[in-house]
Amino acid sequence: MRVGAGRAAFIGIALVVAVLGCSSESAPAQATVAVVPCEKLRSFLPDLPGWARETTPQCETDTAESVSRVQVDYDKGMSRMSVEIMDSSKNPDVQAPLTAMFESTDAEAMAQGWIKTKIKNFPAVEEWTPVSGHGEISILVADRFMVRLVGSTVPDIATVREAAEKIDLKGLASVR
Question: How far apart are CA 176 and CA 152, in angstroms?
């Protein structure tokens, strides 16, 4: 499979809305719940046996936009795995690109180069580009938390899936 335009849109839109917020010309969308501070999300970053984890995860909380995120990279030889957990506070503008992917038909998903799946019973989408060893999995947890794993120069999508399975998604779903 190739990396699809839909995936690029999710990455670009979600991060722009979440990190930079809306422009001064439009009012930000209202979140329906209080944002979970990024420090609380850190505990959900997984231990990946055999992978060396960065010592300091990136951590951002924007209470004005009601979003937070934590991100860390792992290395194993020439391979790299990036794990990001974002609290969207159920903001539909932040979630829109990912939820649009879930609402698409299987044929539309395949045409964009990704497939719909589940990770620990949570809806997910995955992409795999075998030529470059690039794999991505995005998971929506409790209609609130967006978890994204990106594997670079990894042997297969199963490597990314195994890392996703190490995250306590059920525990994350219970965070308030």
Answer: 32
Residues 6+ apart with CB under 8 A from 161: 119, 126, 137
Give CATH for domain 5-173: 3.40.1000
Which residue in this structure is represented by tokens 């055999």?
Answer: 50
Checking if the pLDDT of 144 tops 70, the result is yes
Is the four-CA dihedral 32, 35, 40, 44 of positive or negative sign? positive
Distance CA 158, CA 163 (A): 9
Q: How far apart are CA 155 and CA 19, in angstroms?
A: 31
pTM beyond 0.90: the answer is no
Token couple for 64? 């004005």
* 44 or 29, higher pLDDT: 44
